[in-house]
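Researcher: Re-running this chain for the archive, since the previous output was lost when a drive failed. Same request as before.
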Amino acid sequence: MNADQVAALRALLEPSGWVQRTSCFGRSLRQTARTPHGLLVVGTAQDEPWHMTAHLADEARLAGLAELEPTLVRWAPPPGAPPHLSIGIDRLLAASRGETLLVVSAGPAPAALLERVQDVRRAGASVFALDRGDPDLDALAHEALAVPVHGVPISFDAAQHLVSTAVSDPDGRKPDGGLRSRLARLLDAVSGSEPG
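Model: Regenerated structure tokens:
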């Protein structure tokens, strides 16, 4: 990433407040997720949050934090799926106090998902939502981060990157070294640029 790209990214994100918003959401998620394998990540049946789960897994591994190791919850895992990809939606029925559910949904949550989220909340687990501004889902969440479709300088995928990076940062002191460095690597990978 060259200096112009770094300057453009900073100019884009700093005034918008999105780095701060995603950092606050990520730190809250980190403080709540304290049970190994108790960070459950679910989406809709049509859009499973593979992307977010993979980034959270990387961050948990790099930070050495087993409690942040996510469990992808799937609506219908195929028979014979590897263990980490075979956790079905019934796992939410077993959610309990001390566990955390992160719902990642770029579209409106269907009724079946809202019912499961409500059950998880009743069981005493913490509920977080990363969505596009779904009022029904946000009303069930203890904390929600809405990334509107229009009018914001950040995509839903970029917000997932920022949140997952913030989760591994215990006090938010890494935006210059940690977050920006990781964003630089991400942009290099996306753009195909060679590291400088």
